[in-house]
Amino acid sequence: MSKTDIGIDLGTANTVITLGKKGVVLSEPSAIAYHTHTKEVLAVGKRAYQMIGKTPDYIEVIRPLSGGVISDDRMTQYMIREFILQVTGHRLTKPRIIICVPSFITDVEKRAVVEAAMSAGSRKAYLIDEPIAALIGAGVNIGKARGNMVVDIGGGTTDVAIVSMNGIVTSHSVRAAGNTLDQAIIRYMQTKYKLLIGERTAERLKIEMTNLYDPRADVTSWVKGRNLVSGLPEMQEISELEIFEAVEDVIADIIEAIKTVLEETPPELVGDIYENGVLMAGGGAMLGGLRKLVERTLQVKCVVAKDAIHCVAKGTAIAFRKMDTLLDGFENIAVYQFK
Ligand SMILES: Nc1ncnc2c1ncn2[C@@H]1O[C@H](COP(=O)(O)OP(=O)(O)OP(=O)(O)O)[C@@H](O)[C@H]1O
């Protein structure tokens, strides 16, 4: 592994970068702000994210990925280049890059990711399946003939997969994830209180107020928004129980996706999952009470990965070491190579 090797978890909500043996060196929202007339980029990452919902007409903030895949090639390339520049300090490092991609993306979408990496000056780009990266990032040995299950709840998608002998055996992906939860909270506030709240407020409520296991009516928080009838600013008190009501359908879709994968998995491997438990990764894994809810609903042990939001990126860094083993022909880890 070289000190210029770069691992990238290019996510719908966040981009996380690792550099050589240093580990995670950048973790920023996948967002970009640009001038709508001149198309000039004004801010990337955290600075762009802070502008969401607060810009004048001539500035737009976009998220260049949607549902785990690139929706705006040019802006994604720009964003990756900027982030790499931030971590390396200069452009001409010609690093090797591993980027992780959701297990369901098409070859065309893979190519778009690789082109984004190449445009950042990479000398070789490799892609690794996200579930594989999440498991190795959490320190799981996936080389054995043994079933390992991972549920990666990101911003755009929830990816559920069973991995054995370094490869994906069964997988399923749904759009029910962090952003859908935020949108569900926005809709709930509109319907119940005629209160319009912004995306960032909804995300804060989700992070601070979600309790999926034993939500209470007497645990509350105040929310600011605009009353849709009067058009005036308003404060509203909202309880854990109400947040639970707002998000329960989305959570049901996530649990259904886990169930689907368990149903489609060969029985020997399912047996391993009941013994090993399910690893939960991604920012959504930290949703209050989710782990206990999954355990109660599916009667299977669950573990939330340490540093769940960086787990996939850490896996890409570890994959550089595994890749050398791959080249020796000892392992068959699912890394695709592009020159
Ligand atoms: N403590 C928390 N509790 C609940 N949700 C959280 C928490 N912290 C972050 N999140 C949510 O996690 C999501 C981002 O997770 P992550 O960075 O793993 O996604 P991503 O990799 O960008 O997305 P994807 O994998 O879908 O492309 C956001 O929706 C964010 O609101």
From TrEMBL:
The gene is mreB. ATP binds at T12, A13, N14, G155, G156, T157, E203, R204, L205, K206. Keywords: ATP-binding, Cell shape, Cytoplasm, Nucleotide-binding. It is found in: Cytoplasm. PANTHER family: CELL SHAPE-DETERMINING PROTEIN MREB (PTHR42749:SF1). Pfam families: MreB_Mbl (PF06723). InterPro entries: ATPase_NBD, MreB, MreB_MamK-like. Forms polymers. One of its GO terms (cellular component) is cytoplasm. It comes from the Bacteria. The keyword Secreted does not apply. GO terms for biological process: cell morphogenesis; regulation of cell shape. This is Cell shape-determining protein MreB. Forms membrane-associated dynamic filaments that are essential for cell shape determination. Acts by regulating cell wall synthesis and cell elongation, and thus cell shape. A feedback loop between cell geometry and MreB localization may maintain elongated cell shape by targeting cell wall growth to regions of negative cell wall curvature. Belongs to the FtsA/MreB family. GO terms for molecular function: ATP binding.
